[in-house]
Design a protein that fits this description.
6 helices; about 325 residues; Alpha-Beta Plaits; single chain; seven-stranded mixed β-sheet; globular; TIM Barrel; 13 strands; alpha+beta
C-alpha cells in the first residue's frame, strides 16, 4: 500500500519567528513540494500573514493566516483564520513582541555587563588532538576588535607563534571589493606563468614537502564554554536538579542568573555561563535536563570564546 500523500502543512514558521524562510520563500517551497495549502503559524506573531496570503495568491497556493500562542504555562496553542481586523488579537501579539524585546534587552545587558557580545564566527583551531573547524553564533568579549566588525565588513583574527594575534579587516561585499579580489587572483595567475617554478609562491603558502595530514575533530570533541538559557518551573529544588546533572557531566558553572517571571507565571528563565567543556559532555547533560518535568521545551545554548590568544575560554 502506498503511503498517503500530504496535501497541506498546517504548522509553518517564517522569519517572523524561528523559521528560516520568508513568506514568499515558504510559498515557493510548498508549491515545489506539491502542497495545496499551508498555514502560517509563527510563534506569538502574525507579522507574515498578509505577505504570505499575497504570495499564495500569486503562486496559486491556499495560505491560511494563523498564529502559535505560548501560554504562561509553556503550552502552545495553534490558531487559524485570524484576520487583520481582529485588532484585539493583533494588539496582544504586539504586546508579546514588546515583552520579548524587553526580555532580550535584559539578557543582552547582562551579557554586556560580563563583557560579551553575540556574533557569527567561523573558527579554525589547531589543538594537540587535531583541528577544530566550526561555524556558529558565538559570544565573544566586547574588548576584542573582531567583536566590532559590522555590516559588509569582514575580519580574520590569526594567532601565530611569533607575532601573536593579528587582525585582517576589510569589506567583504560590494562591486569594487569583489572586483578587487578577482583582479588580484588574475594577477597571481599571470605572475605564476612568468615566474621561474623554483621561485613561485606555493598555492597553499607552503612547499608540498612541508604539508602533512592532520585529523579533523568532530564537533563532539570541540571544547568551549557555553551560554545556556532554559524555562523552568519556579519552585524549590529545580535549580538543584539542573546543577546535579551538570556536575555529574563534569560541567562547572561560572555564573547563574534567574530572571524574575511575569506576574502570574509559574515558570522562570534560568541563564547560565559554563566553564570550558567538551561538546559531547554538554550534549549529554542537556539531553538529561530537557527530559526533566520541571524544564519546558529546549535549552537554548550559544558557544562562548574568549579569544585570549591561547585558545582557552
Amino acid at each position: 500500500m502506498n503511503a498517503p500523500k500530504y496535501l497541506c502543512d498546517l504548522h509553518v514558521h517564517t522569519t517572523a519567528s524561528d523559521g528560516g524562510y520568508t513568506p514568499e520563500e515558504i510559498v515557493r517551497l510548498a508549491v515545489s513540494l506539491g502542497l495545496e495549502a499551508i498555514a502560517i503559524t509563527d510563534h506569538d506573531s502574525a507579522a507574515s500573514n498578509i505577505a504570505g496570503v499575497k504570495a499564495g495568491e500569486k503562486f496559486g497556493l491556499r495560505v491560511i493566516p494563523g498564529v502559535e500562542l505560548t501560554t504562561v504555562e509553556g503550552c502552545h496553542i495553534l490558531g487559524y483564520f485570524i484576520q487583520p481586523v481582529e485588532s484585539g488579537l493583533y494588539e496582544y501579539l504586539s504586546s508579546l513582541k514588546r515583552q520579548s524585546w524587553t526580555f532580550m534587552c535584559k539578557i543582552l545587558e547582562r551579557l554586556r555587563s560580563r563583557g560579551l557580545r553575540v556574533t557569527e564566527q567561523e573558527l579554525a583551531r589547531r589543538t594537540g588532538e587535531g583541528v577544530e573547524l566550526r561555524v556558529h553564533p558565538t559570544l565573544i568579549p566586547e574588548r576584542c576588535l573582531i567583536a566590532n566588525v559590522n555590516g559588509v565588513m569582514n575580519a580574520v583574527l590569526v594567532k601565530a607563534d611569533a607575532v601573536g594575534s593579528t587582525l585582517y579587516y576589510g569589506a567583504g561585499a560590494g562591486a569594487e571589493p569583489t572586483a578587487s579580489a578577482v583582479v588580484a587572483d588574475l594577477v597571481d595567475v599571470v605572475r605564476a606563468l612568468t615566474t621561474d617554478p623554483g621561485n613561485r609562491v606555493p598555492h597553499l603558502a607552503f612547499q608540498p614537502d612541508a604539508i602533512s595530514n592532520l585529523p579533523m575533530l568532530s564537533i563532539d570533541d570541540a571544547q568551549t564554554a557555553y551560554y545556556l538559557r532554559m524555562l523552568a518551573e519556579d519552585r524549590p529544588g529545580v535549580l538543584a536538579e539542573v546543577a546535579t546533572i551538570l556536575g555529574d557531566a563534569g560541567i562547572s558553572i561560572e555564573a547563574l542568573v534567574q530572571l524574575q517571571p511575569p506576574q502570574g507565571a509559574s515558570q522562570a528563565r534560568l541563564v547560565m555561563l559554563s566553564h570550558r567543556v567538551r561538546e559531547r559532555q554538554m550534549n549529554i547533560a542537556l539531553e538529561q535536563i530537557e527530559a526533566l518535568d520541571s524544564i519546558s521545551g529546549k535549552v537554548t545554548r550559544i558557544r562562548v570564546e574568549q579569544l585570549d590568544g591561547d585558545g582557552h575560554s
